[in-house]
Amino acid sequence: MSSRYYLPAGSAAAPYTVSVTRESAGWDHCSLHVAELAAGQSLRAHSGEDEIVVVPLSGSFRVSCGGEAHELSGRSSVFDGPTDFAYIGRDSDYTVTGTGRVALGGAVARRSLPFRYVPAADVVVELRGAGNASRQVHNFAMADTFDADALLACEVLTPGGNWSSYPAHKHDEHSEHETPLEEIYYFEFASGAGGSPGFGYHRVYGTAARPIDVLEEVRTGDVVLVPHGYHGPSIAAPGHHMYYLNIMSGPERAWRSCDDPAHAWLRDTWRDTPIDPRLPLGKTDIRH
Fold first, then answer.
1. Where are the alpha helices (DSSP H) in 122-251?
2. Rounded mean pLDDT of the chain?
3. Is cis: bond before 261, omega within 30 of 0?
4. Is the backbone peptide bond immediately before 114 cis, with ω within 30 degrees of 0?
5. What is the pLDDT of residues 44-73, one digit of tens each?
6. Do the strands 93-108 and 30-46 form a parallel or antiparallel pair, or are they unpaired?
7. Which residues 6+ apart lie within 8 Å of 244 measured at CB?
8. Strand (E) positions, the chain?
9. Would you call 121 exposed, middle or buried from its count of C-beta atoms within 10 A (0-12, 13-18, 19+)?
10. CA 79: distance to chain centroid?
């Protein structure tokens, strides 16, 4: 049984494949639209109250805003390493033209910041976890890597058979250890032998005070919403590398989270366990 927090690929009207607005999600801060553009097709929009990151998932794009334009080289697939991206401030008309699949992640912004371009070489990449909890993180628009008003965004690559977002963690309270953040997970999977489609599973669960119960099988193009509660693990089926794009926002632009105390001890077991040798995936330089 699918929950209201799961949006399958193809659930939005063309050219979008999936669409999350604040209204459809029933929350206050973040949004995501993923579009498939045919050769030379353009997407024209107004950012309104949102600041937006334009992230090529596959293909290359030209992004125009306020009389300026930036060419995004993009990538052939999300498994090729980090991509360059563009930032669009609030109250801006913009156009995205190109061929391929592109994500538009948004968050309600108070400040108006300028249209910008960030090359792939400037994206901070790190490896987290160990053993079968190893994953690769592209911190392209986090609070300590990119100047924005409210938006937080990163990408995670998880080798087939591994567990990611694990131990499960949450960020839904105001405290020295947490910041309340709404979060969107957008998934893609590498095909296996003979072109077999990839898949995985994603879990969200709550506390006694704020219950939530989500367990979804996810495939390429699917979205899971995390309004609150512990989220994880995200599990990649053996033979299929998993990608997800995280879009987050809340009252404070900071990422502080707490592990589920029942599983926090697992981090101690990683000290003497090597990182999965399949990482890094794609063309990238690891920086810590």
1. none
2. 96
3. no
4. no
5. 999 999 999 999 999 999 999 999 999 999
6. antiparallel
7. 155, 156, 158, 164, 185, 186, 187, 188, 234
8. 6-7, 16-20, 30-46, 50-65, 68-75, 85-88, 93-108, 116-118, 124-128, 135-141, 152-158, 163-164, 169-170, 182-189, 200-205, 213-218, 223-226, 230-236, 242-249, 258-259
9. exposed
10. 14
% residues pLDDT > 70 (the chain): 98
Structure-token match 């030379």, residue found: 40
Residue 73's beta-bridge partner residues? none
With contact defined as beta carbons under 8 Å apart, do 186 and 32 qualify? yes
pLDDT at 194: 86
Tens-place pLDDT, residues 163-195? 999 999 999 999 999 999 999 999 999 998 889
**Distance (Å, rounded) from C-alpha 190 to C-alpha 65?**
33
- Using the predicted structure, report yes or no on whether residue 21 has a pLDDT greater than 90: yes
pTM of the complete model: 0.97
Q: Is the CB of residue 57 less than 8 Å from the CB of residue 34? A: yes
CA distances from 267 to 2, 128, 135, 272 (A): 31, 10, 14, 11
Distance from C-alpha of 278 to C-alpha of 281, rounded to nearest angstrom: 7
Indicate the pLDDT class of residue 284, thresholds 50, 70 and 90.
Answer: confident
Neighbours of 86 (CB within 10 A): 27
